[in-house]
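SAMPLE LOG
Freezer: B-3
Tube label: C17
Construct: single chain, 329 aa
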Amino acid sequence: MENKNNLALNIENLSVKYKVYEGTLEVIPGLSMHVEQAERVGLIGEAGCGKTTVLKSAAAVLHSPPAIVRKDAIEVCGVSVDGKKGVRSVRRNVSMIFQDPSSSLNPTLKISTQMTDILKSQFPGRKKAEYRQMMLDALDNVSMPAPERVLGSYPVQLSGGMRQRVCIAMALMKDTNLMLADEPTTALDVTIEEQILDLLDKLVREKKKSLVLVSHALGAIRKITDRVYVMYAGNVVEVGKTREVFEHPRHPYTIGLLAATPKLTGSGIADGIAGDIPSYINPPKGCRFASRCPRCTPECLEAPPVLESVDGREDWMVACHHAGEEAMA
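STRUCTURE (predicted):
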């Protein structure tokens, strides 16, 4: 890993809990990750594994309370995400595309007003006509039909897919170093999905931006990202170069996750991974994947595994007591 001051994002020992009626949800017990400048990183795992919580923590938009956040460090472009100064720095250097566009847009303001506010903060002193053209260009880049009408509309007057495209356009307009994309194409038609992902890929490459992409479209993760973090029940269980992890996964969860991906060959429907994510109120003391793992042993039930290098390599880490066994390759 590079010097942390040269990183676009550095998270060290992040812990997130939620107080609920039944008790305390221990969602993320202690997660660390980093993103280098101009690097594209994927974050994959089942729904409910904590991926969105990680992104919201990095963007300083995770509400506390109800969340109880502890960390050794969260730094964006070398600046600690603490206090008002840190939050302001995050908002200058980070753009985030949320999975739910309804939570990102103000229902009482027209789209033009919301997009203009972003442009004025990023590019102050421009003329109204110039701002309007920048907005139209941004909407055109995400294949928005009738962009002139969209600018004069309120969010409620747009479909879910159109609102998501507005959010993506707003994120692409910002001149930031780090982009966090949380399932950015969930509400889009499949014909538009690939266009948007290609646009994101083109943008971060041309402008040398850093990207963290959360997506269930593993083909997009493989195509766009340089490295990938695999999360299960709040823990990183495997991290390495995307192509190597996809071709030779070492953690049993990664193996099962990739095997469950539908294939274009039409060779049948995958069985998926038996069982469910464990309860966050009373998580197991050992490996959180143990109850679903075909290689579970008594050691897995007693002691949580830690990330260790694969074949002595620091760029490929796996958290599994049996990762070195030949049958896992």
